[in-house]
Amino acid sequence: MNAHEIDYQIHGEEMQFVEIELDPQESVVAESGSFMMMSDGIKMETIFGDGSNQDEGVLGKLFSAGKRLLTGESLFMTVFSNIGMGKKQISFASPYPGKIIPIDLSEIGGKFICQKDAFLCAAKGVSVGIEFSKRLGRGLFGGEGFIMEKLEGDGLAFVHAGGTMSKKVLFSGEILKVDTGCIVGFTKDVDYDIEFVGGIKNTVFGGEGLFFATLKGPGTVYVQSLPFSRLAGRVLALAPQTGGKRRGEGSILGGIGDLLDGDNR
User: Fold this and answer.
1) Residue 73 or residue 5, greater confidence
2) What 3-state class would DSSP assign to 98?
3) Within a domain: residue 252?
4) pLDDT attached to residue 96
5) For residues 46, 21, 228 and 113, what is the CA-based torsion angle, rounded to 10 degrees?
6) What is the pLDDT of residue 159?
7) Which of 62, 146, 172, 265 has CB 3.0 to 4.6 Å from 133, enough for a Cys bridge?
8) Which of 172, 209, 210 is nearest to 191 (CA)?
9) Is 172 within the bounds of a domain?
10) How confident is the model at residue 81 (pLDDT cuts 50, 70, 90)?
């Protein structure tokens, strides 16, 4: 096994965190900003890329870091290593309400493709790279562009889904149609493409976007009920445009005042 073999436990319901247990000399790599807490005896080190090819010299490190630029992520990741004598624990928290999903890459053929902001942390040795779209329609209209993130190796990785997560196991030839923003990730054998909704009424008045994703089995697909882009859009739509408190908040009239003057959104 090339990746470090780690144990874990997921805590919580709506705002979850994953607690990883590291044996001496074991390590876990994580995105910046996901760290929550750790035991004494764990060393934190910032590295180029994901740490999966640190033995390949300077060029290997630069190539690993350069791939991350294409996904919009930082050049650097953080590796946490147990340099003590006994078992140590370290925890990573989800960035917004949802579920943390453990992905054992050794059980799914060594590869998992996910949206760019889904990755949370992984055992050191798991490669965090990029997956280019080979189809023009998927790249232009998929909501994720031409590039998605891919996790490769034989270790454990953890991804985050917003809201409630649904796991769909597709048989060969079975098709699942999903809102493009609701895809968390899928296994390597799933065929992913973008389909036009069609119809004048659907296009103009549907309010659901012009395209949805089609995922064709065999394979496993993870779907989220509340993608961060949708959550952020609702918050921005309800935010006061003047930067102050909305007049309806806390008043006896409530939202009626906003409704009468056209400010109800």
Assistant:
1) 5
2) strand
3) no
4) 86
5) 80
6) 96
7) 146
8) 172
9) yes
10) very high
Residue 263 lies in a domain: no
Q: Which domain holds residue 174?
A: 7-232
Alpha-helix runs per DSSP H in the chain: 57-70, 136-141, 200-205, 228-238, 256-260
| Residue 64 near residue 53 (C-beta atoms within 8 A) | yes
Task: Report how far residue 52's alpha carbon sits from residue 65's, in angstroms, rounded to the nearest whole number.
Answer: 11
Question: Does residue 235 register a pLDDT over 60?
Answer: yes
CA 195 to CA 218: how far, in whole Å? 19
DSSP-derived secondary structure for 200-264: HHHHHH--S-SEEEEEESSEEEEEESS-HHHHHHHHHHHS-TTSS--TTTTSSSTTHHHHHTT--
pLDDT of residue 191: 92
CA 113/CA 103 separation, integer angstroms: 11
Tokens, residue 12: 């919580």
Q: Quote the CA–CA distance of 248 and 246 in Å, as a whole number.
A: 5
Number of structural domains in the chain: 1
Cβ atoms < 10 Å from Cβ of 29 = 26
